[in-house]
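Subject: Sanity check before I submit

Could someone independently write out the structure tokens for this chain? I want to compare against mine line by line before I put it in a report. The sequence has 318 residues.
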Amino acid sequence: ECDMKSIITLRHHCSGLQHINKTFKIIAAYKEKLKKDPQSKLKKDPEENNPEYDLYSVLDKQNKKIVGLRYITEFINPNGNKKPLYHCRLPLCQNAQGDAGHMSRHIFTVSHRAAWIQEDQKNDSLVKHEQVISYVEEHFENLREEYGQISQDESLENYSKIELKEFRRADKLPPIKRKAEEETVGGGGLGPLANLNIKRMKSDFDDDIAAPDQDDGQADVKQPLSEKEVERNFKWQIAHCVRSCLDTYYPGTEKYVQGNKALSKDDYSSLARQYINQFKKEIKTEYIARNGSIQGIALTPEWTVKVIATVTEALKNR
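---
Independent answer below. Compare away.
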């Protein structure tokens, strides 16, 4: 467990190599335990086969303030015999995923609330726990109104990834989930959901590594991306990882660590392009050799650790 006194400290800590390595070791140990232990020894989840055990029913019983529901995706097992699972796509939430109980606990964490304030409210000035909680108390969402904003995915492949906690932030959003008690407007339609505006993120220093586009929720999520789109999205993942390291050496960014030898703007851009191109080539070559094409390529946790370790070590030895 990591006890931090402010959001900024928490962000710096979570982006550090030691925290990331420890996290992956814990996850790997847990998966290994599941492989070795007979099913009879594993504690049975009483809600495992209950399709009615959803996030709405859990949140509706809580007397707490809720924010960020529109960043949650609900994954439905197409066979209809298992509970729905959930994933939070807020960048700072680091792919939080699990069942309704797990996601409800995540939604009430200070880290999720702070991530929502920064991403959705465009406010990165709140650094203390008390400030975040106070802000949420004033700007919380109505569960009945906002629950219809979450997206819904019925892919068995993605559902299986969520079960293993291996799903990563989607390039495109699945269709919007309709409200359970939605009132029809003018004979039908999505009502307030029709005006949903999904923001596009973009890189600060290079249009060529802009973040992947997100559609308006109406596109067919099963339609495969073109090779160019796949490669562009993959390049953005690497860029995001590399920049997270460089930011700790670049004054003016949230992640800048006092005492680090500061990078100039030119150094920052030069190093970013150097490492992005280097790791793009290495990972792509390895992936194609193993899979035959770049379809499905992504920055895996193992490669994330390697990228962070390489860039961080190089920056320390400058």
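---
OP: Matches mine. For the report I'm noting this point. Residues 141 and 251 are 35 Å apart (CA to CA).
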